[in-house]
Amino acid sequence: MPDLTRRDFLKLGAAGGGAAGLSVLGFDLAEADQVKQNFRIAGTRESHSVCPYCAVGCALVAFTKDNSDGSRQLLQIEGNPDSPVNEGRLCP
Question: Which of 22, 47, 52, 90 would give a disulfide with 27, using CB separation of 3.0 to 4.6 Å?
Answer without folding.
Answer: 22
